[in-house]
Amino acid sequence: MREMQVGLIGYGMAGRVFHAPVIAAVPRLRLTRVVERRGQTSRERYPTVEVASEAAALFEDEEIELVVVATPSSSHFDLARQALLADKHVVVDKPFALTSAQAQELIDLGRQQHKVVSAFHNRRWDGDFRTVSQLVNQGVLGRLVEYESHFDRFRNYFSPERAWRETVGPGGGVLFDLGPHLIDQALVLFGLPRMVAADIRSQREAGKADDQFELILHYDGLKVTLKAGLLVRQPGPRFALHGTAGSFVKYGVDPQEDALKGGRSPREPDWGVEPETAWGTLDTQIGGLHFRGKLETVPGGYQSYYENVYQAIRGEAELLVKPEEARNTIRIIELAVQSNAEKRTVAFS
């Protein structure tokens, strides 16, 4: 078992909650260096890591093969580019870049350097999304006509920890924060849409960046609605799918984020398993029989993302989250911004 050393740039919420504990849960990965600008917080949980104040320390370390960029969105492109030029494989937290042109530049550079480049679209390993994927791929609902996916949250205040996300500027706002997750999941299921329509708003008083959006992706015979908002005290369904044979409706969010925030590890037994109370409701025709009842959620597993990255770097498996897919997600965001500004539906191009 050949171990791979990993360097993490950034130990804010993304690095601390989503990346470090998941990397640490993958047996063949070893988190060895963390870039923190203030203090050495990472060593409280990972006492063997070395802490650096500048990313250059990771780029110059010949032992580090994989660099993970978990910094504010505006710095993703530049740091990923530097890492590739330093001959490192790269994982970039979402959003992959701020523009599709930047994303394409990283793709081209990765090919030139013969390095693996991927975006951290961990929500592909949400248990509820894995369940939805099986329902869609197996045609359990018949011909799907409507798919709706939400991230409904209630935060009627401005958080200092999320300051850069809640100000007007490159990568700020909920569209760049939560949009990549919802868009990526839709593209995994249905591919590229024909047209995109968007309504993007700032709903909180004194709000600067957008804090609510609704995207509609148009496919032949299928309407895909993606919504996120920060003033939704009574959440709607996380997923609602309707087809010619039936429907599936699921409330509640995947439990992995809260578990990671609580200091738990993906190495624990029953990781990513939802309680029965959170299972979605399936109402459909199966083999000529009407079924209505709870459908057990497939367990989630964010560690599978990093396991696949390791395997792709070692040549053991195909990379699952390809940079071209991350580029397409950014392109959808660009078209959504255009649609909102022009108050019209725009063709995907």
Question: What overall geometry do the principal axes of the alpha carbons give?
Answer: globular
In CATH terms, what is the fold-level topology of the largest domain?
Dihydrodipicolinate Reductase, domain 2
As residue ranges, the low-confidence spans are none
Assembly context of the chains:
single chain
Number of helices: 10
Count structural domains: 2
Helix and strand content put the structural class at alpha/beta
Note the beta-strand portion: 25-35%
CATH homology group of the largest domain: Dihydrodipicolinate Reductase, domain 2
In CATH, the architecture of the largest domain is 2-Layer Sandwich
User: Taking all residues together, what is the mean pLDDT?
Assistant: 95
Q: Largest sheet, order of strands side by side?
A: 14-13-12-11-7-10-9-8-15
Number of strands: 15
Order of helices and strands: EHEEHEHEHEHEHHEEEEEHEEHHE
Top-tier CATH class of the largest domain: Alpha Beta
**Largest beta-sheet details:** 9 strands, mixed
Query: In which range does the helix fraction lie?
Result: 25-40%
Tell me the Rg in angstroms.
20 Å
